[in-house]
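Possible race condition, two jobs.
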Amino acid sequence: MKFSNPFKSRKSKKKEVHKKKLLSAKQTATNNNEPWVSVLDMDVDMKDISNGSFELDWNDLFITRLMKSGYQGKTDADMVDQWFQSICRNIVMETYEQEQSDPHIRKVDLGNGRSEIS
């Protein structure tokens, strides 16, 4: 007999449902012989908003694709971490290059941690 935890938050239940949907997408991709990777969850440290973490999941076909692309590591997680870091690095570099190529970009602080860029 299963007992439910009355103290478990609704947010946790929503995350569980979201993860189950993603896991079924993973199974579908795997069944179709396609590489698959997804962000399952993201956490932000509200005391230090610059810090956080991502929870990623992938199938074996994605690992094979990474290996064919030259990624190496002792574990699958090492290769996925290298890939994710390169994605993040590319985003930062692209943003930097855009800012350098158009010095007339106007950035307005809207407050509350938001900015408008035109």
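Job #2 (started ~2 s after job #1):
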Amino acid sequence: MFVLFGLFRDIIPAQAMGEGGELETVRGRSGCVPDLRLGFPVPLTPRPADYLPRRGRRPAAVEGQPAPAPRPTIRRTAPGNVERFIAELKVMGAGPTNYPRGEARSRDKAADRRARGLPALYRAKLTTIDRQYYGTVDGEVGPCQERLESLGDLLQVVVGYWGEVSTDLERIIRAVAEARVLHLARETGRPITDAWVGQVLGQHRRSLSAAFVRAQAACLVSRMGHLGVGAREAAARRKVAVEQELRLRREEEAYFAAHVRGRGRWTGR
């Protein structure tokens, strides 16, 4: 996320990052721009039915067998080109906002509903900065919003509470699997087949699905510590620690003030 913020650093005014500014905190800075910038050696756009990834090295001919037939020539991305995107990552909780009762039987996944609102969210944040520091008006595109649009489409990477994923994340997983097969094909000379791509894609889906479910369960279990008697006792200990830190800070300020004034003795009043 800090790499992406650096892409906006030259056009964000210093006042916005100063004390009292919109981007004073690290959380504010990371929240005004997307999280990730990704590159893929295979396209994420919809593919024709006869699409194949870029050709790897031809397999070596086995002695006593005819040489393998050349693969059909079809239009592919030029070798070495990497298609880059910006992406925003969100993880959903199991609340009524994300999973309303009226949408329980809908074919529209909750992850996709959440994903559709992400582009407008970041566009609104950068538009606010443009209006406050560059004086833009309604309908006018400011420098920050223009920079965001110049980076291309925003991939909406959303993971639902039950392990479901948004459409863009599914496209990313498929692109990762195809890139993996493309790399192995270039190393071994093995021809790329749909069955091989499907096998690697299944491995990636299983591993990521298990990771998503475990992460959601870990977050739920970790929040259990905030409940019960132990949580109240911990809150009381934190309150005592805060009061002690405040007393020590006041004592330090009083001794410093007495040192500046000259001789004197602090009475604790």
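Residues 2-45+80-168 form one domain.
Logs attached separately.
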